[in-house]
Amino acid sequence: xxxxxxxxxxxxxxxxxxxxxxxxxxxxxxxxxxxxxxxxxxxxxxxxxxxxxxxxxxxxxxxxxxxxxxxxxxxxxxxxxxxxxxxxxxxxxxxxxxxxxxxxxxxxxxxxxxxxxxxxxxxxxxxxxxxxxxxxxxxxxxxxxxxxxxxxxxxxxxxxxxxxxxxxxxxxxxxxxxxxxxxxxxxxxxxxxxxxxxxxxxxxxxxxxxxxxxxxxxxxxxxxxxxxxxxxxxxxxxxxxxxxxxxxxxxxxxxxxxxxxxxxxxxxxxxxxxxxxxxxxxxxxxxxxxxx
Length: 292
Fold this sequence. Notes:
With 292 residues, this protein is α/β, with parallel strands linked by helices. 40% of the residues lie in helices and 17% in strands.
């Protein structure tokens, strides 16, 4: 299968690059935003006309949550127009499409995990544009999976795990929000899941799927375990969301129910603590290899 990875320089894109080196089942084509702009319909159409592509995995997204409140046009073009273009052309050229969305499409007022058919109610520009992108794919695609995920972290790129590790070492004293509850997602687990479901994705099972690691935690407890696993001595104090104001409103509760994806594709999902430990081992190994 010839697979196009858009947004190849991001966390997910780089995870796919790593797996491509050890996966001989598929042929991957990696394109960053300079090499292939998903907001340009003409450039995309020309690309698909010249290349035989069996599947698109769209890792391109505008993910600067606070910046999106000001830079609304860019967020709209990347998160709405881009997916719309990919959706229309995936149908034209008979290509499967995987697209990633977010827990931010919900308002965070639930107290039980969100299901795929719960009514979205995003409170941020980021969440609103991601929801619009979902709708464009549903309207224009034929064989697709929209995968909503949350609290993504990876060996690659910038993320909460790396930020906490860095600040904990530098400062030794942190204040972290404790009243936002969600589930961390190790990007490697998500990427492996996508490559597992892609060959068996069809018209009948196309739709929206939730994916994160199992369990739930707060940012505060997540930070505590990040430091504990690395033996970092840091005083971490809990604070409320109101004590750390941001431009964009975050959902207070965004745990995702994964029953649908587990049932449809007969799969298990690791606990978030288990995956965080796996991340720590992989990161340690990579840092060691860089040092020799």
